[in-house]
Every structure is written in structure tokens, then in C-alpha cells.
Amino acid sequence: MKILIKITAFVIILLLTSTFIPALAQGNTIGSISARSACLVDADSGKLLYSKNADKRMPMASTTKVMTAIVALESKVPLDTVIKIPKAAVGIEGSSVYLKEGESIALEDLLYSLLLASANDASVAIAIAVAGSEDAFVELMNKKARELGLCNTHFSNPHGLDDKEHYTTARELAQIMAYALQNESFMTICGTYKKVLQRDGSTRLLVNHNRLLKAYKGVIAGKTGFTKKSGRCLVSLAEREGLRLICVTLDAPNDWADHTSLYDFGFSNYMRVYFEKISIEIPVISGEKSSVRAESQGSSSIMIQKSLADQIKLTLYAPRFIFADVEKGEIIGKAVYTCGGRVLASSPIYACEDIPKIHYGFNLIDWLKNIIKGLKEWKK
Question: What pLDDT was estimated at residue 14?
């Protein structure tokens, strides 16, 4: 027989507070979004909070460089590797840090140039250094896209200049960003607002094109993009009190306002709820100890609408008692969190120790087993 205990004491609710005044979003509403395609996603669960043509294939301009950076960072080329700039990386159309043929620059500095200054010449230099050629590097980008399960993303270059075979969707660009933010080096570089590079005795100041890093509370990373065909493109990541949101806009004349509006909506209406580690004692029958300590694996969390947070309940399923032997790691119960009858999370509860069975006095079966064992040994 199992006991049912409904409690809320194990739930820690971290209330979100913000002094930022919503510019376009008020309460539960979102103002007009200029983007042709957009989405707002919970970075940890992938849950879609807002969608506008989120699965429409679109050009993504220099937001491409999120994938370029990840492929480079996951390669076997160390960040301190000094790269000699090839002729093929010089004079690339669009944004540039004006690399010169034959000059030497570390891969890490090229990545800063890529993600802060959106340098197309740096992207080609990185591609050739990592894969031997631009085409080979693009193959790696598409391979990574397939590994991430992206069905509507294809790359034809490492910088994002227009090509009919170069496209993604708002939803899949959010997935790429969610994957990228797991890389510490990416987050460090992408979240840097200013960086001074030393190049051949001279210095160059790089300023991140993502002005949301300074303009919106909580934005910690992102990448801009623009071509005449793609329009203004932007992917960004913001975090407040443990809630991490990714916003993507493609072909957005007012992308800064779009991201502000979507983040205001997200942070005003959603929060992250934390569940503590569960620890209980269960009586043990015929054991060397009278009870066993059992625990869930650890704390967890989930994103939920703020309006539902006070309805969360924990139901603990566990036996009234168990019989020895008890083995460490044995599942002896589970904790289930619900809200309005819907399961939010479930966690097994494991025994934390071995509890052997007590053997009382003379045991006929054990005595016979020992006699048989002794006879077998004697015959040998």
C-alpha cells in the first residue's frame, strides 16, 4: 500500500522582479512585431512561448556565424593557434576587420572578430584554418545541423552572404543558439561588449554589434545580421533569475524593439520554479537498521506561467514500510509535481544505503546448506 502526501514545502518558487518598464508589451500581451519571422523560446526546455512564421525558411545573414563559431570551437584547433591569413580570406564583401594576406592572428582573436565585428574575412580565415578549405568547413556546418536534428537549415558559406541554398528558420536558429550557449568559450566571446586586439604592433577596438547587451537588462549574448535580401536579423539570449529566453527575429525592420517586446512578455508572464532534493525515511522490517534514508537524485526546475505557480503540488509515492534486504540505489518511491492535474515533473526516489536482513538464531536451511557444502569439499 502506498501513501499519498500532498505538500508544497519542497517547492521553492523564485519570484522574478524587474524594474525595466515594458516598451511594447503590457501584461499578457505583445505589441506589434515587425519581423516576418520570429520566436521566443525557453532556452532550457525548448518550449515555444511566441511564434510568428517560426518554421518558414528564411535567409539569416550573419547570424550564420553562431554555427561558424561552434564548429570552430569544437574542432581540434586550439584557441591560441596562430593563423597565417590566406589570400582567399582577404577582401571579402561586407563587414570586415580588414585582414591582410600573410599576417598572423590567433584563432581566438579571429573568433572575437567574427562574433563582435561580424567580420566576413575572419569567417573565411577560420574556415580554412579549421577545415583546409571553405567548402570543407561548410560541410562540417551542415553535418552539425544534421546532428542537431535541423530539417530546415542549410549552409553554403561560413559568413551568411546571400545564397539561395543558405537558409534557416527562426525556430531552428533558436535551437542552434541553445546548443551554442552550452559552450563556455562561445558565451564568453559572444557576451563581450568591447575587445582590444593586438595585431602586428597595432591595436584594434572591436565593439559588439549587439547593442542589446547594454540596452536591455539580462541580455548576455547574441548575434546580429543584415543583407539587403535577408533584412535585419537578430538572435539573442537573456537571463533573469534563472529563466533563460532565446529570441529570434528574421527580416525585422525594428529588431531591437521586437526583442524588447518579446522579452518583456516572456519575463512578465513566465518564471522558473525550483524543486528541492527530496529526502525521506522509510521503516524497514527485519533489517539491521529500523529505517532507510531515500532521496531523489537532486534539485530540478521547470519553467511555468507565473499565474499557475501557487497551484503546484508535490505528491510523494512511497510504501509505508519495506522488507530487508534493501540495496543501495534501489528505487523505492517517486515524487511527482503537478499543476491543475497536469504532471510537471517526476523524480524516482532511491535508497541511499544497504540494509541487510537480520538472521535470528538457528536457521535450518542455512545449516543444511553448510552440511552439503562440507560433504562436497570432503569428497574432493
Answer: 31
37 a catalytic residue: no
3-class SS string, 57-80: CECCHHHHHHHHHHHHHCCCCCCC
Q: Which residues contact 217 (CB under 8 A, 6 or more apart)?
A: 18, 19, 20, 240
- The one catalytic residue among 62, 113, 123, 347: 62
| Residue 65 bears catalytic tag | yes
- Answer yes or no: 379 catalytic: no
Helix (H, G, I), strand (E, B) or coil at 224: strand
> Which amino acid does the sequence have at 54?
A
Mean pLDDT by 10 residues, the chain (380 residues): 34 30 44 95 96 98 98 97 96 94 96 98 98 98 98 98 97 98 97 90 91 97 97 98 97 97 96 89 89 86 89 91 91 91 89 86 61 61
Domains and CATH numbers, the chain: 37-272 (3.40.710.10), 276-380 (2.60.410.10)
Residue 76 corresponds to which cell in the numbers above?
581540434
| Cα–Cα distance list, 98 to 119, 137, 198, 200 (Å) | 8, 21, 14, 13
Ranges assigned E (strand) in the chain: 2-7, 11-13, 37-42, 48-52, 82-84, 104-106, 194-199, 202-207, 219-227, 231-240, 243-250, 270-275, 279-285, 291-295, 300-305, 312-319, 322-323, 331-339, 342-351
- What's the pTM? 0.81
CB 256, CB 212: distance < 8 Å:
yes
Catalytic residue among 118, 123, 268, 296: 118
Q: Which of 65, 113, 223, 230 is catalytic?
A: 65
